[in-house]
């Protein structure tokens, strides 16, 4: 017996979940088909860091603003805990200070603040706690963004799926691989479906059912290294933490004219960091452990083996920005996501019924709901 839906989503990562959420808001009947028994890809291997500031200034930033709003609503509805809020970017070079100040003059930077070194003593009075755990004495200034927040991805994604199933009546078919799609008919390893629309959200599975549809986009896979650290008892971050390297990498900062001098200096002083695509991100979990990363290696396949050298480079940078006195590695893992050199995301219109949606920049957690909204705003307007 065929199962009938108005929308069939292939893939249960954050892009697939976001499409299911947006479709149900519009009243469509929805099913999600996932080849694994649970979500195992990039959506749970990341920082859980919902970022707005620093995103690409066009569609990516707009989608991030919308996605952050949806995430905040869903944390309440689905019982997902926000672990900390705000981002602190320690500027350790004069060139980084210039980038931060230039950013404040942009529309994206309107609600952000740059704190000069002379004002560090005022941070507690301004309501910021635990800033003493940052090595402020090693910085020339700090760029603060209030927009970011962090969830624990390995918990948040399953909770979001549960909410979609129990409260929004999305049907999930786990351990079910899509074998073929013929217009409205979808054959899987367990069932046959009929759907008015199909959206394929393959994540990093670029060799599966989506392969023939996305070949022209020349996507690569980006592998990154991450790890979880236990540090001294009682250490609390004031929020997510980044450094000069992030200002030179995230497009919302890196594409500013003032960023070129910073990129040139980093290339000269830290070539090994540039070679491995390292820029520091540190976030904290409820148990006090720190999730730290990351690096970026690009190729046609995921890198299987993690590098001790890369890990050491990241940890060396960590000690330059945080007042930690000890650490122990609790977990190590690699993340992987599809990457494009020309766009942060793509929507491939295969036919009037079939589309492929991919975040191709590692910003899925931050932009997926906005991407799904854009997709349906245009797709359903044709009805």
Count of folded domains? 2
**Main beta sheet, described?**
10 strands, mixed
Content of β-strand: 25-35%
The overall average pLDDT, rounded, is 95
CATH structural fold name of the largest domain: D-Amino Acid Oxidase, Chain A, domain 2
Describe the structure.
The chain is of the alpha+beta class and 383 residues long. 30% of the residues lie in helices and 28% in strands. It has helices spanning 14-25, 59-77, 94-104, 153-166, 211-214, 244-247, 251-254, 259-269, 271-275, 308-321, 364-379; strands at residues 3-10, 30-33, 49-50, 84-91, 113-116, 141-150, 171-173, 178-182, 185-188, 192-200, 220-231, 240-243, 281-284, 290-293, 297-299, 327-339, 345-349, 354-359. Strands 3, 4, 5, 6, 11, 12, 13, 14, 15 and 16 form a 10-stranded mixed sheet that branches. Helix 1 packs parallel to helix 4 (153-166) and helix 2 (59-77) crosses helix 11 (364-379). The longest helix has 19 residues, at 59-77. It starts with a strand and ends with a helix. The model has no long low-confidence stretch (mean pLDDT 95).
């Amino acid at each position: 017996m065929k199962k009938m839906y108005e929308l069939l989503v292939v893939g249960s990562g954050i892009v697939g979940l976001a499409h299911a959420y947006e479709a149900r808001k519009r009243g469509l009947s929805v099913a999600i088909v996932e080849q694994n028994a649970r979500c195992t890809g990039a959506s749970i291997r990341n920082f859980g860091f919902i970022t707005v500031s620093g995103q690409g200034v066009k569609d990516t930033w707009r989608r991030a603003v919308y996605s952050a709003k949806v995430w905040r609503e869903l944390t309440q509805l689905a019982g997902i805990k926000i672990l900390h809020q705000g981002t602190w970017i320690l500027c350790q070079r004069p060139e980084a200070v210039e980038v931060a100040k230039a950013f404040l003059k942009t529309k994206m930077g309107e609600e952000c603040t740059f704190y000069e070194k002379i004002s560090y003593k005022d941070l507690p009075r301004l309501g910021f706690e635990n800033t003493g755990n940052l090595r402020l004495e090693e910085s020339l200034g700090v760029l603060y963004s209030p927009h970011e927040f962090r969830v624990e991805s390995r918990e948040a994604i399953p909770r979001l799926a549960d909410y979609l199933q129990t409260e929004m009546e999305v049907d999930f078919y786990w351990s079910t691989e899509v074998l073929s799609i013929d217009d409205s008919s979808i054959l899987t390893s367990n069932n046959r479906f009929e759907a008015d629309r199909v959206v394929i959200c393959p994540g990093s599975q670029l060799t599966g059912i989506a392969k023939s549809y996305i070949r022209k986009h020349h996507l690569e896979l980006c592998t990154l290294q991450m790890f979880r650290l236990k540090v001294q008892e009682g250490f609390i971050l004031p929020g997510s933490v980044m450094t000069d390297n992030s200002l030179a990498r995230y497009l919302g900062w890196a594409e500013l004219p003032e960023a070129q001098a910073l990129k040139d200096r980093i290339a000269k002083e830290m070539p090994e960091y540039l070679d491995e695509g390292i820029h520091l991100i540190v976030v904290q979990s409820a148990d006090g452990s720190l999730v730290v990363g990351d690096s970026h290696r690009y190729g046609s396949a995921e890198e299987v083996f993690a590098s001790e050298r890369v890990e050491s480079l990241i940890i060396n940078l960590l000690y330059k920005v945080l007042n930690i006195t000890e650490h122990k590695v609790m977990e190590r893992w690699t993340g992987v996501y599809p990457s494009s050199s020309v766009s942060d995301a793509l929507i491939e219109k295969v036919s009037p019924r079939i589309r492929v949606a991919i975040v191709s920049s590692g910003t899925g957690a931050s932009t997926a709901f906005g991407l799904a909204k854009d997709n349906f705003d245009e797709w359903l307007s044709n009805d």
